[in-house]
Specification:
115 residues, 1 helix, three-stranded antiparallel beta sheet
Length: 115
Amino acid sequence: MKQLEKLEKYVIVPNVGFYGGFVYDGDDIMLCDDHDTDKGYDFKVKQRIENNVLITDSERTYERDNGKKVNEKIHQEVEIEKGQLLVYVEGLGFTISEHKMCLIDEAVELYNILK
């Protein structure tokens, strides 16, 4: 019977989806004024940063499986700091990621270290 000599190194398959993003520099800025539509779906989002506050106004209209039409209106204010990474998520706008994120070059370097 052969004996196990060594273990291979495995990692979770990396997410290869990309997110647009930027690091907040402390200045007031208009981030987006987007309008997306699709079959049975309409989404508008307007976002800006004023005085270190990310302000989001969005409206989403969609149809449920049972045919009922839903209209959501959201106003949200989140205090942020200079140096905060904001990523753009389709259907939401700019948000603070729940996950630690890095630039592609940094990710490649980290994976090369694992070899």
